[in-house]
Amino acid sequence: MNGEFPEWLKIPAPDEKSLYEMQDLIKGMTLHTVCEEALCPNVGECFKSRTATFLLMGDVCTRNCNFCAVRHGNPLPLDPDEPRHIAEACKALGLKYVVLTCVTRDDLADGGASHMALVVEEVKKLNPGAKVELLTSDLGGSRDALKNLLEAPLDVLAHNVETVPSLYPAVRPQANYERSLAVIEMAKAIAPKVLTKSGIMVGLGETYEEVIEVMCDLISVGCDILTIGQYLQPSPSHLPVKEFVPPKQYQMYEQKGLELGFKYVVAGPLVRSSYRASAYQS
User: Fold this and answer.
1) Distance in angstroms (rounded) separating the CA atoms of residues 200 and 267
2) In angstroms, how far is CA 117 from the centroid of its own chain?
3) What spatial distance separates the first Cα and last Cα of the chain, rounded to whole Å?
4) Mean pLDDT over residues 50-63, rounded?
5) Residue 49 and residue 55 in contact, taking contact as beta carbons nearer than 8 Å
6) Would you list which residues are annotated within the binding site for [4Fe-4S] cluster?
7) Which residues are listed for [4Fe-4S] cluster 2 binding in this entry (predicted)?
8) What is the pLDDT of residues 227-238, one digit of tens each?
9) Residue 220 CB contacts under 8 Å (≥ 6 apart), including other chains
10) Backbone dihedral region of 94: left (phi > 0), alpha (psi from -120 to 50 degrees) or beta?
11) What pLDDT was estimated at residue 145?
């Protein structure tokens, strides 16, 4: 299904001045954002409001998920100056809510957990009062690595299951659904006061019932916050869109999620894991 987007997926062209200003600021500090690396449709809106989701540990992922636009291959060594640069960028932007994410680094013994913890600590040190949300990889399922990460002063720990279990072989062949659920469960056990968050994409061929089952699974492992958004094919070499899910169905997902017990559910065609994160976690 690669025809014209339905009306509810059409967004205005980004403000070029704001876009270039943010790009210059970020690149001047040798940083990366998932907004650009993952071709997020909300990049114009977010950059205009001076917000961004910083991509940690480089822009090359060791996994090759069939939905994701981030480059894959052999990443460079970690940048020891990244924690300071991220913290300085947050201060320059005057951020009160900082969203961090990462590439998967299976080449590192702890998946990069200790490095990400340093970033969080530096951001908090240089930006007193700011809240920090981190979207992590599965860290290879390591409880020790996750515990190390959660020793940092995080406010929200996110890990996306991305899709329903039946689609994992096609969508996330190097990942494991049960392992992703375990990350949420371990995080809640290790740091009960830290909010846990996950997200899924729809439009890949899943059924409504399968999405509800994922919701139930996430609730059972202690997930507090859920995001649901439309999958959009980033290039012809990625998985095709099977369905453009109509807005009414997102309303149904949102209502059902709240009934099941999530503290927050944000569902909509253009919703992404970090989209307007501070608005519902103030």
Assistant:
1) 10
2) 17
3) 38
4) 82
5) no
6) 35, 40, 46, 61, 65, 68, 274
7) 61, 65, 68
8) 999 998 888 889
9) none
10) left
11) 98
| Amino acid of residue 65 | C
Boundaries of every domain in the chain:
7-280
Structure tokens at 124: 């908090």
**Nearest alpha carbon to residue 136 among 262, 34, 265, 238:** 34
Superfamily in which the 7-280 domain is placed by CATH: Aldolase class I (3.20.20.70)
Q: Estimate to the nearest angstrom the gap between the alpha carbon of 167 and the chain centroid.
A: 19
Compute how many other C-beta atoms are within 10 angstroms of the C-beta atom of residue 214. Answer: 22
The annotation places the binding site at 35, 40, 46, 61, 65, 68, 274
Hunting for tokens 């704001």 — which residue is that?
A: 18
Residue 89 vs residues 26, 33, 81, 82, 98: alpha-carbon distances, Å: 7, 12, 12, 10, 10
| Placement of tokens 């096609």 in the chain | 170
pTM for this entry: 0.86
